[in-house]
Amino acid sequence: MSSPDTNAEEIIEESIEPQEEPIIDEKREAFVASIKQDLGSGFIDSHIDPEIDVWIRVTQEAWLETAKILFEKHGMNFFNFLSAIDWKPSPFGREMDAAIDNVDDEVAVETEMEWGVAGGEKRFQLLARVHNPVANMGVNLKADLEGDFPEVDTWTPVYPGANWHEREVMEMFGISFKNHPNMVNLYLPTEFEGHPLRKDFPLLSRRAKPWPGIVDVELMPGENDDETEESGEET
Amino acid sequence: MNSEASTQQLSYIANQASDARVNIELETEGMTLNLGPQHPATHGTLRIIVRLDGEQVVSAEPVMGYMHRGYEKLTEVRTYPQVTTLVNRIDWLGSFANEVPFILAAERLMEVEAPARAQWIRTALFELSRIANVVLFLGDMAVQLGATTPVFYAFRDREFVLNQIESVTGGRFHPNFDRIGGIKDDLPKGWIQETKDVLVRIHSFCEEMEDLVVGNEIFQTRTRGIGIIPADTGLAYGLSGANIRSSGVDWDLRRDGGVGLIHDQLDWKVWTHPDGDSFARYWVRLQEVRESCKMVGQILDGIPSGPIMAKVPRIIKVPPGEAYVETENPLGVMGYYIVSKGDLVPYRVKIRSASFNNVSITPWVLKGVYVPDVISILASLYFILGDIDR
């Protein structure tokens, strides 16, 4: 291998070196404090990964207001994405060894919901991200949504790019957006029933076929398996 | 607040006026034209319903979903190592680049870092897949404007790049080579010299394209001043990659993002163009291929020795948490938002693909242009259907 031996060891040592003191990210702390002041009661919670990322959770009513503040005051003019998370514990795809997803007897396995970063209260959470290309800082936004078929203000007046993302969220999660210019399905046919990315929407291929990957396990000719091979030899 | 309201009002009036002008000047009946789903300008099956008045586009509405494969749902029933097989198929011309942000996000959650050699090889393959992807664009845009020759050159020279990717990973289009904590295999013998030869070829390909296409008067007439996207509009629509850099925004995640790849240790330049038209988008991509060649050349000279895998458990369970990692992929910013609950499988994966946002600007940018310009604008935006429909 014609690879010149440069300082590989040094780089590895640096990366392993543990950082004892908790890093305080002043830029992001100040950013969160400013948002908190502007939103008042609309602000619920925040989380900072020092030097990496920041999460802010707001109320459903303050969703559009947050976008305006981020766009106008903080220069977050790059629209990254808008989506949602369904926090309902899913009965599907949990057992890798199960031949198929057996739903009937274990729907009520977990009834308590657990939320991720920056907490949560409701089943559906909006998730969006915007970015400031000049300061090179992005922010993840979350908002809890009330009810089974929630409705929330659209972001299209501030970020026109949210148009298609909101249509996708509408068809995939059943969350509709007030004042959206064109609230129709994006990918799915109009007559499609159900909302595929909800956790209680069964993945049909997963119920009909075993876990992908398990079927690929084939024994080498020399390896001895259990009864199946022996019984084959006897007959 | 006031200024915003008045800008909105002004733009509304301007739109109304342009519509009215179209209707008064040409007393023609409107016509609806279906562009696609099988149009060669669409790299797949995108259908655009174009409402025409004479030769001018009144409105354009893309229709997607002909290739929707539901990757976000499928990732919820696949283990982390199995997900890379899926995400390979998102942007199929630069497959390896799709795996990188997902693996980096999983590594961040697991607090694992790949060894230096793995990071260098990753970056080399990342840039090679960019070359393979964008070289095809350089030929393909020309063929959509009527010049047939460049696309044959593009396919010919891209094959050499794909051969290099194949000899490392075993797959021409779908390498599935990136692993949590490193990469699958080391480089094969003689690969570095072979790749250097290929880079020379790509360099001469770029020169050829500069002469054949960029210097061509017909090409310039059909692209200069066509489909101008101002920087602020592009950003609000989420345009990224070369599309936004050609509007004068100096923002490249390879330089500014700095996660997991080693672009900050290389000597290269971010190219921008002030015009924001179709020509600028072609020109910026041409320069980017040259920069990528430069980067790969430096990587080949400087790959450190050492291990290619960090210590990771055999059965990968990712600790609970959430992470979003994005990288500068051939088509633009691509990111994965992973929600993990500590299982073998991700709880939710949001895939932020570049083309989805890049194409969402088409209703805005196609309004008022002439029919032949629709093709040159679509071609210059450069999207791949797998990257839109996911």
Summarize the structure.
The complex is a heterodimer of chains A (235) and B (390). Chain A has 235 residues and is an alpha/beta fold.
Protein architecture, described:
Chain A is an alpha/beta fold and 235 residues long. Chain A has helices spanning 8-16, 26-39, 63-73, 162-173, 204-208, 227-234, and strands spanning 43-49, 53-58, 78-86, 124-132, 137-145, 151-153, 176-178. In chain A, strands 1-2-5-4-3 form a 5-stranded mixed sheet. In chain A, strands 6-7 form a two-stranded parallel ribbon. Chain A is globular, with a radius of gyration of 24 Å. Chain B has 390 residues and is of the alpha+beta class. Chain B has a single domain, classed as Cytochrome-c3 Hydrogenase, chain B (Orthogonal Bundle), CATH 1.10.645.10. Helix content of chain B is 51%, strand content 12%. Chain B has helices at residues 2-25, 71-74, 80-87, 95-110, 116-144, 149-169, 191-214, 217-223, 231-237, 242-245, 253-256, 278-302, 354-359, 362-365, 371-381, 385-389, and strands at residues 31-35, 47-53, 56-63, 178-179, 182-183, 321-329, 332-340, 348-352. In chain B, a hairpin with a 2-residue loop joins strand 6 (321-329) and strand 7. In chain B, helix 5 runs antiparallel to helix 6 (149-169) and helix 5 (116-144) packs parallel to helix 7 (191-214). The chains are: A alpha/beta (235), B alpha+beta (390).
